[in-house]
């Protein structure tokens, strides 16, 4: 069974082609690191899996069904989260707003929905954050609430778009480990996008590397190589391994690092 | 005070309008769209004066322009962002147009003051009925959309992925706000809508971090401001709109200073 399947998929935004003629298949229960430079199309790919962008060609299947917008089996943590910081609402109110939030009517939660919210908060260890004000949480704490929100409804496929942004290395590690723990515990598939490979190196089953309108899906050893990345970057790339870490260099400079620092 | 019929009408109208304004205002504050209410009121001024000129009740002219303005704002959506100059010019133009319409109308001064600053003591039984029906309609509509509206407000990208139409929700919400603005303008006038719509809602959000209590508190504060303003106006003979804005400002100030 496959969690995500692309058959000859072409993704276009306006006139711009983001992904050309791509075939790929993510197996059920895999933890996939989605990598690629800024603008490579990581967010676009996730939005296509969510059914928010219709492929210009080809077909996408999600959990062995044609892609469907609003699929309750797919959880999503979006990349753009600037808004969340402004609200003077409690963590609980914020997370709960997403529980069956697409239905009409008053935002009252029944007992089952409240249990779902508690369960999701517990999964990410965010129970102590439920009473605190969103505006007064740190970036890492807010990230936990967003992850809890993505878990509502117990999805079988989880799309996490850049959960590591603006976190320092210890918090990055905590989020990566949390995501891995949840993925194992619930036996679900996770697509985890990031700018840097190294924080994910120990936990991912395979990488999906995007660049130059192409995609490469495989193990780190298969994909993170000079020739394969040179094709994706459209430039000469060298891969250096040092003390269990991987460095991707172009003309002697590390390509993954600085461009993402302020992202 | 309550032995006068006009005072009973005024209390009724103030209650009806305060409740609708506070509910709409709560979501406006949450969405960071507080100036939408202000802007719609300005646009409504042109409609109201135009209606007066052709012999129609200003409320209908007001409603027609605010509702179409609200729907337009919802449809344009993010394309309005960062367009403060264009928006400001449209608002100025609306007031200017309203002034021109009034120029052709003979009872110029009284009508202008009423539209700009409201006249709570001038509400008759017929108007009160209309206000109540409009309020019930917009509250019902708001109740129906409130769940997806809240979701779309707090997590637009996720809401979209879960099947909420962001644009649809936004258009419906702004149409409801347009009705609430028109109602509000009957009480405090075009220029002071902010005081009744936004001040209590913003104060409530500073005082509670939960949503249902927040909406209820916003309603209670708005009601207290409106009725308090009315009572003070009765005893001082100063304009009720002044007292309502003053109490709104005080409420917000007190809420900002309140310890948490
Ligand atoms: N509406 C649009 N029309 C045309 N091009 C667009 C549109 N929106 C985004 N793009 C382009 O699509 C490309 C892919 O964007 P996307 O957000 O998917 O990249 P990303 O890999 O997520 O980047 P980042 O690392 O910065 O998050 C970018 O080059 C972007 O400029
Ligand atoms: Mg992105």
Order of helices and strands of chain B: HHHHHHHHHHHH
The main sheet of chain B comes to: none
Q: Helicity range of the residues of chain A?
A: 25-40%
Report the end-to-end length of chain B measured between terminal Cα atoms.
38 Å
Shape of chain A: globular
The pair of chains with the biggest contact is:
A-B, 37 and 28 residues
Work out the number of β strands of chain A.
13
Number of strands of chain B: 0
Major sheet of chain A: order of its strands? Answer: 6-7-8-3-9-10
- C-alpha Rg of chain A, in Å? 19 Å
How would you describe this protein?
The complex is a heterodimer of chains A (263) and B (260). Chain A has helices spanning 42-49, 91-96, 111-123, 139-151, 169-186, 220-223, 226-233, 258-261, and strands at residues 2-13, 16-27, 31-35, 57-62, 65-66, 74-77, 157-160, 189-193, 206-211, 214-218, 238-242, 245-250, 253-254. In chain A, strand 12 and strand 13 (253-254) form a beta hairpin. In chain A, the strands form three sheets. In chain A, strands 6-7-8-3-9-10 form a six-stranded mixed β-sheet, with helices on both faces. A four-stranded antiparallel β-sheet of chain A has the order 2-1-4-5, covered by helices on one side. Chain A is α/β, with parallel strands linked by helices and 263 residues long. Chain A folds into two domains: 1-73 and 156-217, P-loop containing nucleotide triphosphate hydrolases (Rossmann fold); 84-154, no CATH class. With 260 residues, chain B is mainly alpha-helical. Chain B has a single domain (5-191), classed as ABC transporter involved in vitamin B12 uptake, BtuC. Helices cover 82% and strands 0% of the residues of chain B. Chain B has helices at 5-31, 34-53, 58-76, 84-103, 108-117, 125-154, 156-161, 166-188, 193-197, 199-207, 211-236, 240-257. Chain B starts with a helix and ends with a helix. The interface between A and B is medium-sized, with 37 and 28 residues. Adenosine-5'-triphosphate (ATP) is lined by residues 13-14, 16, 18, 36, 38-44, 79 of chain A.
């Amino acid at each position: 069974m496959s969690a995500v399947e692309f058959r000859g998929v072409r993704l276009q935004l306006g006139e711009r082609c983001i992904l050309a003629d791509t075939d790929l298949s993510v197996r059920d229960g895999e933890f996939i690191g989605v990598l690629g430079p800024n603008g490579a199309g990581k967010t676009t790919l996730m939005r296509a899996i969510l059914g928010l962008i219709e492929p210009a060609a080809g077909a996408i299947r999600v959990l062995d069904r044609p892609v469907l917008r609003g699929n309750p089996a797919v959880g999503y943590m979006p990349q753009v989260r600037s808004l969340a910081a402004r609200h003077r609402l409690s963590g609980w109110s914020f997370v709960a707003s997403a529980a069956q939030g697409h239905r009409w009517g008053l935002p009252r939660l029944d007992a089952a929905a409240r249990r779902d919210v508690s369960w999701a908060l517990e999964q990410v260890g965010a129970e102590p954050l439920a009473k605190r004000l969103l505006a007064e949480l740190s970036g890492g704490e807010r990230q936990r609430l967003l992850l809890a929100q993505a878990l509502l409804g117990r999805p079988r496929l989880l799309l996490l778009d850049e959960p590591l942004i603006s976190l320092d290395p210890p918090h990055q590690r905590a989020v990566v480990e949390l995501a891995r723990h949840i993925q194992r515990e619930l036996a679900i598939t996770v697509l985890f996008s990031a700018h840097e490979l190294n924080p994910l190196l120990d936990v991912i089953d395979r990488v999906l590397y995007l660049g130059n309108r192409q995609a490469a899906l495989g193990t780190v050893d298969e994909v993170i190589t000079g020739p394969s990345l040179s094709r994706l970057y459209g430039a000469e790339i060298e891969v250096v391994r040092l003390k269990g870490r991987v460095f991707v260099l172009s003309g002697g400079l590390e390509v993954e690092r600085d461009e993402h620092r302020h992202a | 005070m309550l032995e006068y019929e006009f005072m009973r009408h005024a209390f009724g109208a103030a209650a009806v309008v305060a409740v609708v304004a506070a509910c709409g205002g709560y979501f406006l504050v949450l969405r960071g769209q507080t100036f939408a209410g202000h802007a719609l009121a300005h646009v409504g001024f042109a409609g109201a004066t135009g209606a007066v000129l052709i012999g129609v009740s200003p409320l209908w002219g007001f409603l027609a322009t605010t509702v179409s303005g609200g729907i337009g704002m919802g449809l344009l959506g993010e394309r309005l962002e960062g367009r403060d100059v264009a928006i400001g010019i449209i608002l100025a133009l609306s007031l200017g147009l309203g002034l021109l319409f009034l120029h052709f109308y003979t009872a110029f001064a009284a009508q202008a003051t009423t539209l700009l600053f409201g006249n709570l003591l001038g509400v008759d039984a017929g108007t009160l009925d209309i206000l109540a029906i409009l309020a019930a309609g917009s509250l019902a509509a708001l109740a129906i959309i409130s769940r997806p509206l809240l979701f779309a407000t707090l997590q637009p990208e996720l809401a979209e992925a879960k099947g909420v139409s962001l644009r649809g929700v936004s258009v419906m919400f702004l149409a409801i706000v347009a009705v609430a603005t028109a109602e509000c303008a009957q009480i405090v006038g075009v220029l002071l809508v902010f005081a009744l719509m936004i001040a209590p809602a913003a104060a409530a959000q500073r005082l509670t971090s939960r949503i249902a209590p927040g909406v209820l508190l916003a309603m209670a504060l708005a009601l207290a401001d409106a009725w308090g303003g009315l009572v003070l106006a009765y005893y001082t003979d100063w304009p009720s709109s002044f007292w309502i804005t003053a109490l709104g400002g005080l409420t917000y100030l007190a809420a900002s200073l309140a310890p948490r």
